[in-house]
Specification:
- The complex is a heterodimer.
- By secondary structure, chain A is an all-beta fold.
- In chain A, 0% of the residues lie in helices and 58% in strands.
- Chain A is built from no helices and eleven strands.
- In chain A, the strands form two sheets. In chain A, strands 2, 4, 5, 9, 10 and 11 form a six-stranded mixed β-sheet that branches. Chain A has a five-stranded antiparallel β-sheet with strand order 1-3-8-7-6, with no helix packed on it.
- The termini of chain A are far apart.
- Chain B is an all-beta fold.
- In chain B, a hairpin with a 2-residue loop joins strand 5 and strand 6.
- Chain B is globular and about 40 Å long.
- Chain B starts with a strand and ends with a strand.
- Classes of the chains: A mainly beta, B mainly beta.
- At the A-B interface, strand 4, strand 5, strand 9 and strand 10 of A face strand 4, strand 5 and strand 10 of B.
């Protein structure tokens, strides 16, 4: 059974810092991994989707990497801003039509 | 085009009441999913529709929960005899065609259900 873990559960950093969020999964037989952002009381906004054949994806200040063999993904946020404050979720798609989500990392960027 | 929409955005009800939550998927998306997100947790799968039929309802917690998609578009999640433990955000997602590998799901804003 696929299990997804995100560390840390919460993170508070000063504005301008570069930071890394971690996601680990127990079964490497995945099709893709997706990072989402969730603002309080809101739905999920897709940030980056990495196919199983890819090693990383980049969008603006965000970079996500995937190491299937070790069951790990990282989301790197460069030059963090207060507007980046949100919960970040990673989700695994293994071809069984449902996403398996981690519990998220709550990020607070202090001005 | 329009994304996935869900109504109502918030629903407050009393224990024991019946509620219906609605999801309008992206036009043309044949696959529809319901997830439930409890406070401080990631979303958990409830049920998946391919067209009009529920292809997998293994995530529904018990028989008080039921979902329909009669015309293969709009879906309604129905909860009978609500309990306080049902309080959560209910998320709906749709995808173009589940049969495709690496099928990407697009999520709605969710319905926050509070059972008093």
């Amino acid at each position: 059974k696929q299990e997804v873990t995100q560390i840390p559960a919460a993170l508070s950093v000063p504005e301008g810092e570069n930071l890394v969020l971690n996601c680990s999964f127990t079964d490497s037989a995945i099709y893709n991994l997706q990072w989402f952002r969730q603002d309080p009381g809101k739905g999920l906004t897709s940030l980056l989707l990495i196919q199983s054949s890819q090693r990383e994806q980049t969008s603006g200040r965000l970079n996500a990497s995937l190491d299937k063999s070790s069951g790990r993904s990282t989301l790197y946020i460069a030059a963090s801003q207060p507007g980046d404050s949100a919960t970040y979720l990673c989700a695994i798609y293994s071809g069984t039509y449902k996403y398996i989500f981690g519990t998220g990392t709550r990020l607070k960027v202090l001005a | 085009g329009a994304g996935v929409s869900q109504t109502p955005s918030n629903k407050v009800t009393e224990k024991g009441k019946y509620v219906e939550l609605r999801c309008d998927p992206i036009s043309g998306h044949t696959a529809l999913y319901w997830y439930r997100q409890s406070l401080g947790q990631g979303p958990e799968f409830l049920i998946y529709f391919q067209g009009t039929g529920a292809a997998d309802d293994s995530g529904l917690p018990n028989d008080r929960f039921f979902a329909v998609r009669p015309e293969g578009s709009v879906s309604t999640l129905k909860i009978q005899r609500t309990e306080r433990g049902d309080s959560a955000v209910y998320l709906c997602a749709s995808s173009l065609d589940q049969t495709r590998v690496n099928n990407e799901q697009f999520f709605g804003p969710g319905t926050r259900l509070t059972v008093l």
